[in-house]
Amino acid sequence: MTRSAAVPHRLPSEDLGLTGRYRLDPRTADWWWSPEMFALLGLSPDGTRPCTEALLQCQHREDRARTLDALNRAVTAGRSFAVETRVLRRDGALRVLVLMGHPEPADDGAVAAVEGQCVDITSGRLAHDEDVVTALQTEVNQLRTAMASRATIEQAKGILMLLTSCSEQVAFELLAHMSSHTHRKVREVAQSIADSASGHAALPQDLRAILRDACPPAPRLH
């Protein structure tokens, strides 16, 4: 089956009820998605190959198992399904979708294909489930914070490795030691080291003292 022409993957507000179509061949595990299916998931037809993994990765992690189970039952037992799932698209929009599937039997009784639709029900669903939206957005914010903290920690480790000629493991152990003895979080210690090395702020005295004791002579931090 050939793929239709691509459409923009950002949905205007008037397209909240957009419906996508798909087809899964159980024998080859190949998928076909309509342009609307890509749009609902916030994916580009030019940069994404339709597959089970791509479908699951778009969904909230708590919804993935339910979707995969429905697909497996459709393929192995020939059971139709309709599952609700939450999608956080790359453009930052939260969508609530219903994925429906209908097995097509082959002559030998096996499932020849699973065809179905994906419908956007965001406008009606989220109006009665604002706590779901809040929880998901909070999780996204926490993930972004964790990613930023990780980057700062990696930067601080690199600074310590450069200044003290220690290994990556020793640099992290030193960060943990400084965190424990100054009652600061590791990311706060890392931020102080990064700020000091870039000249944005002086290294706090207690952190400077630990560095001096741990790796004399003291590193030249501002």
TrEMBL record:
Transport in keyword set: no
Recorded coiled-coil stretches: none
UniProt keyword list: Kinase, Phosphoprotein, Transferase
Listed GO MF terms: protein histidine kinase activity; RNA binding
Protein name: histidine kinase
Annotated organism of origin: Petropleomorpha daqingensis
InterPro entries: ANTAR, CheY-like_superfamily, PAS, PAS-like_dom_sf, PAS_fold_3, Sensor_kinase/Photoreceptor, WH-like_DNA-bd_sf
PANTHER family the record matches: PAC DOMAIN-CONTAINING PROTEIN, PHYTOCHROME-LIKE PROTEIN CPH1
The keyword Cell membrane appears for this protein: no
One Pfam match: ANTAR
All copies of domain ANTAR, residue ranges: 133-194
Gene3D superfamilies per the UniProt record, alphabetical: 2.10.70.100, PAS domain (3.30.450.20), Winged helix-like DNA-binding domain superfamily/Winged helix DNA-binding domain (1.10.10.10)
Domain of life according to the entry: Bacteria
Species lineage: Bacteria, Bacillati, Actinomycetota, Actinomycetes, Geodermatophilales
Reaction(s) catalysed (UniProt annotation): ATP + protein L-histidine = ADP + protein N-phospho-L-histidine
EC number annotated for this UniProt entry: 2.7.13.3
